[in-house]
Amino acid sequence: MKVFANTNVGLVRKLNEDDYCIAHNDNDEWMAIVCDGIGGAKAGEVASHTAVMTMYEAFMKAPKFNKDRQVDNWIRENLNQANDFIYSKSLKNPNERGMGTTAVGVIVAKIGTFIFNVGDSRIYADYNGELIQMSEDHSVIAQLLKEGKITSEEAKTHPKKNTLTNALGVWESVHADIDLHKEHMDGILLCSDGLHGYVEEEKMKSILLDTDMDPSLSARKLMKSALDAGGYDNVTVIFIDLDGEA
Fold first, then answer.
1. For residue range 90-104, what is the model confidence (pLDDT) as tens digits?
2. pTM for the full model?
């Protein structure tokens, strides 16, 4: 397995509210996570860092995962813990009130690949040369699209384009999507909306599915594409080549 990750503040914002981590524990299991502090809210970078560190510290002490339900429960428990930490912090400090973050991640274990999502950061998978979006955005736009109330073109300029319906730390409780995939995947991409919000999926596909390109180069090209598109937001990319040798 080969992994490449990077984050960039972009060309417009002064502060990078994205955070991420890649972890490999003593059980020979891997976790990768991307968190995007909610733009416009106070202390988004505090929220994203709190979420990343909560998940990282728990993962490094986690028992070996032997059952599907065990992993599901572990993810929910620790995302809830992260939510509690962020929510409590926001109540205690007026400068952090209203902060929150997305969280999208993957756990690669012997029993399967588990993905989880809160918010609108995304996870994609390379299935035999096809790029498939594995997570569902928790946003007003996604809901409107699902209900057929707006078109994809209208979504690009909709006034509620960046409004989330779910995030860590904003409310007392949080809902997470968790899915197990036992089928083989060639690669996995995790990213904040600084990438998928500005780079067309066809462009992402052409970069990620180029079998002649090293994962590190693929990730750098994705990052460059986001900056070339204007760099209007922080952008974070983690690309995992599941077939590559470290």
1. 999 888 988 999 999
2. 0.94
